[in-house]
Amino acid sequence: MIKANYHTHSVLCDGKNTLREMVDSACDKGLHILGFSGHAPMNFVSDWAMDKDRLEKYVNEVKQLKAEYKDKIDILLGIELDADYDGFDIGDFDFTIGSVHQFRDGDKDFPIDLSAASLEKTVEEQFGGDWYKMCECYYNKLADFICECKPDIVGHIDLVTKYNQGYVYFSEEDERYRKIALRAVDKILDCKSDIIFEVNTGAMYRVGKTVPYPAPFIMEYLKKRNAKITVTSDSHSVDSLDFAFEKAFDYCRSFGFEKLTLLTSEGRICCDL
Ligand SMILES: [Zn+2]
Ligand SMILES: [Zn+2]
């Protein structure tokens, strides 16, 4: 089986290791393909995304590593675009991930995945404590952004569940929530039918979530809609590049998926699960 990861951060945004350290670790772990996805510069000041100077450094370094390691591993220059990214030309990248990490109100930032406390504050201050309203706004913002920028991969589609283990904030079984999430899936697939949904193990590593994003009911629906999937680790450190991949593969198989869609320097391929 071809081993690949397309969701990889470094010290140039909010990761812990250099690009080279991530590449060396990927080689050690036997990955065949490594896609970097640094956070694109935002249209506001942020401490987790790259600024313009770092972006330039990022692009140059990844290209250099791609050439240097070409006989060992296929390195792809990607980028994680947030709905509030600063809108630069994205023509130069091998692939893009489209994600939403916060709401904006004027010049104020209301984070979704920074911490449980910051998400509680977001829901309280922006949505009057209504978690379903927050979810609705999140999925609408994500689907609108995906339709506008048509990235290759949808990033952590149900990021709003990051701190919701045991349904401490809202019930993911509630029809209100499920309808909102599945409506976003429909809208995204209507805009770009060959888009890839990532099955992302990042929160399993970072906050001990028991399953990857997306939740089982979304996985079932993706299978029903014949959507394409890939497994990613949303890695911010050398030790997590292929974290829980075997579990994630089993998770995908349990919904009847038989193939993953992989990106390579030569284009897309399908790989048996
Ligand atoms: Zn992200
Ligand atoms: Zn990320």
Category from helices, strands and their pairing: alpha/beta
Rg computed from alpha carbons, rounded to a whole number of angstroms: 18 Å
Strand order, main sheet: write it out.
1-2-3-4-7-8-9
Helical stretch tally:
8
Fold-level CATH name: TIM Barrel
Task: Note the run of SSEs as H and E.
Answer: EHEHEEEEHHEHEHHEHEE
SS strand fraction: 15-25%
- Overall mean pLDDT stands at 97
Which shape, going by the Cα principal axes?
globular
Strand tally, please?
11
Spans where pLDDT lies below 50 across 5 or more residues: none
Bound molecules: zinc ion
CATH architecture: Alpha-Beta Barrel
Tell me the CATH superfamily.
Answer: Metal-dependent hydrolases
From the N-terminal CA to the C-terminal CA, the straight-line distance is: 7 Å
Count of discrete domains: 1
Question: According to CATH, what is the class?
Answer: Alpha Beta
Q: How can the largest sheet be summarized? A: 7 strands, parallel
Describe the structure.
The chain has 8 helices and 11 strands. The protein is α/β, with parallel strands linked by helices and 273 residues long. The N and C termini lie close together (7 Å). 37% of the residues lie in helices and 20% in strands. The strands form 3 sheets. Strands 1-2-3-4-7-8-9 form a 7-stranded parallel sheet. The chain has a two-stranded antiparallel sheet with strand order 5-6. A two-stranded antiparallel sheet has the order 10-11. The longest helix is centred in the middle third of the chain and has 19 residues. Bound molecules: zinc ion (2 copies).
